[in-house]
Amino acid sequence: MRPRHRIALPARRHAPPPGVPGIGTRPLFDTNAQSFDAKPVSEEWPLSRTEYYDDPDAPEPNSLVVAASAVVSDDEGRILLQRRRDNGLWALPGGGMEMTDSLPGTAVREVKEETGLDVEITGLVGTYTDPRHVIAYTDGEVRRQFNVCFTARIVRGRLGLSDESTELRFVHPDEIGALPMHHTQQLRIRHFLEHRERPYLG
């Protein structure tokens, strides 16, 4: 979850993807609930985040935020992804570390906030701090990538959207390549699927 914007700038507009009917609430986590879209989405919403990678036109970074993400998979090997509201792209759940967090605790908290699921950390996929990856927000913040990606298993919870995403879905690995997703997110998933003996350090 990002801190509150300090400067409001005009945002680009983008047509959202087709909505998926909501599944309602369920008493326990159900991996058969592949998609959840309980909130109506207007025909347009403002995008507040733009991703750059090795782009000479990218703005100069002015911020560095420690962040964590998690690969959460179900018993069928599908991976939990969210479609972010701020850029329209699919991504792993995750976000910035707070002063009261540990880094693994950040991943647990963010998964809970963004998906409604309680998870526990089971391992480390890797560190992702490539300075060529720059994230610009419409409030003037330009953030350098700094993310530590964990693996996690589901303990309990009800699948539910937060205000930060428009859709949640458990996706089979073979289908991930067809989703609109920044390649740095695909890299984390690929490293997870490779079952590497050592975490990726990059």
Describe the structure.
By secondary structure, this protein is mostly beta strands. Helices cover 14% and strands 36% of the residues. The chain has helices at residues 103-115, 173-176, 183-193, and strands at 12-14, 35-36, 45-47, 49-53, 63-64, 67-72, 79-84, 90-91, 94-96, 117-128, 133-137, 142-144, 147-157, 165-171, 200-201. The strands form 4 sheets. A 5-stranded mixed beta sheet has the order 9-6-13-10-15, with helices on both faces. A 4-stranded antiparallel beta sheet has the order 2-14-7-8. A hairpin with a 5-residue loop joins strand 7 (79-84) and strand 8 (90-91). The longest helix has 13 residues, at 103-115. The two termini are 23 Å apart.
Compose a concise summary of this entry.
The protein has 202 residues and is mainly β. The chain has helices spanning 103-115, 173-176, 183-193, and strands at 12-14, 35-36, 45-47, 49-53, 63-64, 67-72, 79-84, 90-91, 94-96, 117-128, 133-137, 142-144, 147-157, 165-171, 200-201.
